[in-house]
Amino acid sequence: MLRRERIHISGIVQGVGFRPFVYRLAQQCGLAGFVRNNTEGVLIEVEGNAAGLQAFRHRLATEAPPRAHLVQLTLEEIPPAGESEFAIVASERDRPAQAFISPDLCLCADCRAELFDPANRRFHYPFINCTNCGPRYTIVRRIPYDRRNTSMSVFPLCAACAAEYHDPADRRFHAQPNACPVCGPRLWLCDRNGTQLAEAEAVEQAIAQLQQGAIVAVRGLGGFHLAVDARNQAAVRTLRQRKGRAEKPFAMMARNLAAIENFCHVSPAEQALLQQPARPIVLLPRRAPDQLAAAVAPNQKYFGFMLPYTPLHELLLQDHFDALVMTSGNFSEEPIAIGNQEALARLAALADFFLLHDREILQRCDDSIVRLAAGRPRLIRRSRGYVPEPVFIPRPTPRRVLACGGELKNTIALSRGNAVFLSQHIGDLDNPAAFSFFENSIAHLQDILEIVPELIAYDLHPEYLSTKWALQQEGLPRVGVQHHHAHLAAVMADNGVAEPTIGLILDGTGYGSDGTIWGGEVLLGTAASFERFAYLQPVAMPGGAAAIHQPWRMALSYLAATFGSNLGPLSLPFLQQLRSAAVEVVLQMIDKKINAPLTSSCGRLFDGVAALLGLHQEVSYEAQAAMALEMLADEAEPEFYPEAVRSAGAGAIPITPLIHAVVEDLQNGVAREKIAARFHHTLIEIFITAAGAARAATAINRVGLSGGVYQNAFFFHRMLERLQAEGFEVLTHQQVPTNDGGLALGQIVIAGAVAHQS
Length: 758
Fold this sequence. Notes:
Radius of gyration: 27 Å
Distance between the termini: 53 Å
Shape: globular
Number of helices: 23
CATH superfamily of the domain at 534-731: ATPase, nucleotide binding domain
Oligomer: single chain
Strand order of the largest sheet: 7-6-14-8-9-13-10-12-11-15-16
CATH class of the domain at 534-731: Alpha Beta
CATH architecture of the domain at 534-731: 2-Layer Sandwich
């Protein structure tokens, strides 16, 4: 007896070879019917006998393509239609979009084999792809994900490619970016004036220039990279000078895993991270000595490596370089360049040559960054390869929410039901180009997902550009969200938790409910509300934002809070290195409360101690001093400062005993490496004690860790171990970064809770 079933599937099922998979599966199960993309995902109707239908349903869930992600499957029985064949039919648009868009995918093994096969018609073609790999998010204008809705629409398929595209048995069946040298995008090399130098030999000439020490701007998947030979010290130094990036580590790309293992220790779990379809940059412990240019990552214990993820990368690296520096194509802190003319205008002072192509990038998307910490992958930057895959939250938002994120490491987010779509990494909003990218990202994400916001969530800091933008939007209700509450809500949502949680929220800057700068917080709460249970003793931040860039100011502030304004009796190299006039001015600012806002920031505490230990008096990038303190810490040192822990509990947690102990060790000639480790251990014990007090007061045994301080692997790993040893259930970030890149997720959840209450 014939039966017919209608199956609706939502999730990442467009652009990942799902319809061809369904077609082949229906054929194998002897079923008739059809499959089509629609605005919700995929619609399937299958008709046949009961055994065939049962086998189809089972295999649909268990054998889906590796890049597919099925979120919801609904099934209903409908009357048979008497069909005898199965077909892929045209996409339909019968309602507002609900479908998910696939992230960009790295080159698959099959396409890579064809790329290097001289007998293949796509031999050395830098845009080879199939249903299992290639660009997705960065080339799509709207859904459904069909060729006409991508930047490939301007490349009509040749007869050979069209035959593949329409052949259900072919790997390129309905592969929307499908192309070949006859009909697809082309590549060429030009100089910084835009004069074309080569086309057929573009890759070979680019390789030759890299080997001679040139800087080549390479147009990739989500934007431009600036590439140099990672072994060439002079070339790497030149790149630093031109890019305005004095010391911040550069990312590198190696031709294969074996090449990375020449420079880094790589565990099996880290191998898996490097090889996942997202192909992120992975932070890895460096081997010593290595043969890479010292200027690649000065004073760091880690290298950031990724594997090639496009055919062009494979062609550049294969048999030519062990590793290339592949850093974002921009001046420091600007958005990555994506267009040919844009790159020639913006990067002419940085690059000697440009490797260009004519497949338009519709959305800039930086490389993602991840590290293995405490046995699990931890995102530092969630961008290419992950976006726009949604994060699912425990409770759907009753209204569609736009979250504007923070000021640093900005991402924005949109909600639809229980799905939250975070944008790619936008960056720091303190320059016009970045703010323009912020506005463009909001418009683009709304357009491609067809989500019209009904509520806007924003950070409470009145000077954040994202906040000012939100407050200028008329006609929509707005919800202001306290920064650290958003961090707590984000780590709860990241773990699917809605129940009350203790939050140990540690970062550099966040506008507090009392108008001061927070950042060393023990919170109690849910998405709906929170209270501040404990916090680091506030100290002055002399010069305001200047203290972020000049950690010596924070060091003086902590010394003044501990020893008073007369620092003469202290015999510290740190003080001897400072100009006495500068010291006097800062101490007066603190004493007279002139441009010296109070802060409980844990990040500023790290900065201050780093300066006291003589690591950095000024920094050229965010968290540089704190990172140096982490790099300095002696892994084998177990001790902490007990006196500094005894007063930890509810309310203000005194910091002066910790500073006193650090200074005493310095004066007694204790090795800086030991002091750095003791500082880390003591801070951990302080917050363990405060969390214990919060548990005793509330009977809450769940602790969430969020904030940029947890990017410190030394600190994070030991904090997690100690909390677990004390019997706490610990929530940590896995789907979004612990830094402000995950802030928008928390803002969404809190705004949703407010909407539920109203």
